[in-house]
Specification:
By secondary structure, the chain is α/β, with parallel strands linked by helices. The chain is built from 13 helices and 21 strands. The model has no long low-confidence stretch (mean pLDDT about 95).
């Protein structure tokens, strides 16, 4: 075939449908699961939609992406929301992001945060440190680091935070002492809104319905229950039986057992890629909150985030917890009959040297007409709307 697409998640489905819309039908998608959607798959739990990969929402900011998605799940089938995300700071519930909402804390705690923001290395002109843990304190101040950023990231990504680079944190804003002091005095947030400040979510389905519709549009051009175990880079052959002029890799590189013809250095590089696994669990009780999701840095709680399903999925009840697999007692959960889903590949980790490693790998594979795409193909923590945008762009290049 002309194109072979590995994986039927948002990246693979978008790329395939872009090909089809341009008149190209000489392609095939292969997918290891028995249904499409990847991390954005949904199912029904307790009579309501449940997103098994955690909270996924369609950001409103990219009109080309929303127009593309609405071509499969019409705009009338979505509800639009103003983001309400919060942080449970050991019993004090404040808005997220933390740096814009310190004013919601009790006065004594505000004073502590303000003191440490003033003392933050970036505000004092100190040189930027290299270690992740030192960088967080330098950027945000000791109070935000100790109370929120460090414990939360340990829960989400693991204890060894200094194995992570700091390149992916550059987008974090400097926390200005003067602006924060003014915010506390005037009791209002400041600064730019975070991602998903406004978002869409289907009113009768889980988020995965959009990708089920994309898969349906492809007809028999998807083969399910087909895990990828080998890629021959010189001959562009997958699993010893599929060959193509171009291969689009949207699956995790580390999940492929045999990299035939790939230089040993790059095979070793793939072995250095790291990721975290998460468990999404359903809890049937409703929460007394209007928040859409809440972050929990408290290390005594196993989960790091809650998605409040009944606040963005009309007619549903309960909430979902998101927990790093290393903090989840699966045997106990199974014994108690709880409803949960394990996602082995949840977040690619931004380890030291990953950027250079992926640049070298993707440049080499592109020279063989094999292209990495999306969260796993590029090993970047992209949201689904960014993945869709990147797939749209690759399809026309």
């Amino acid at each position: 075939m002309k194109y072979l697409i590995l994986g039927a998640g948002p990246a693979g489905l978008t790329f395939a449908n872009m090909l089809l819309s341009s008149g190209e039908d000489d392609f095939l998608v292969i997918e290891k699961e028995n249904s499409a959607g990847g991390l954005c798959r949904s199912c029904m739990v307790d009579g309501s939609p449940f997103d098994i990969g955690g909270g996924h929402f369609l950001d409103v900011r990219d009109p080309d992406v929303t127009k593309f998605v609405f071509g499969f799940l019409h705009e009338d089938e979505w509800d639009r929301y103003e983001r309400d995300s919060r942080i449970d700071l050991y019993g004090d519930i404040i808005g997220s992001p933390i740096e814009a909402n310190i004013w919601q804390l009790p006065d004594k705690k505000q004073e502590r945060f303000l003191h440490h923001i003033a003392e933050a290395g970036c505000n004092r002109g100190e040189p930027m440190p290299e270690k992740f843990t030192d960088w967080i304190e330098w950027k945000l101040g000791l109070a935000i680091a100790e109370d929120y950023m460090l414990p939360y990231n340990r829960k989400m990504f693991g204890e060894d935070l200094d194995s992570l680079g700091t390149y992916w944190l550059e987008k974090l804003p400097n926390v200005s002492y003067e602006e924060t002091k003014r915010s506390c005095a005037e009791h209002r947030p400041y600064g730019t809104q975070p991602g998903h400040a406004k978002f869409f979510y289907p009113h009768s389905y889980g988020y995965g319905e959009a990708f089920i519709r994309m898969a349906s549009a492809l007809g028999d051009r998807i083969h399910y229950n087909e895990p990828v175990f080998s890629i021959d880079y010189d001959n562009r052959i997958v699993n010893g039986k599929y060959s193509a002029d171009k291969i689009i890799v949207t699956i995790p590189w580390t999940g492929v057992r045999e990299h035939i013809g790939l230089p040993g250095k790059l095979t070793d590089s793939i072995g250095k890629l790291r990721y975290s696994s998460v468990v999404i669990e359903y809890v049937p009780e409703n929460m007394d909150t209007k928040a859409h999701w809440i972050y929990y840095p408290d290390p005594k709680l196993s989960y790091h985030r809650i998605l409040v399903r009944h606040n963005f999925c009309p007619g549903s009840k309960g909430y979902w917890t998101e927990t790093n697999l290393t903090r989840f007692d699966e045997d106990k959960a199974a014994e108690e009959g709880r409803t949960y889903f394990v996602n082995e590949y949840a977040y690619p980790l931004n380890t030291i040297g990953k950027q250079e490693l992926m640049k070298e790998l993707l440049e080499y594979t592109a020279s063989k007409n094999i292209y990495g795409l999306g969260r796993w193909g590029e090993w970047q923590h992209y949201n689904s709307d960014v993945v869709i945008r990147r797939a749209m762009e690759l399809s026309i290049n």
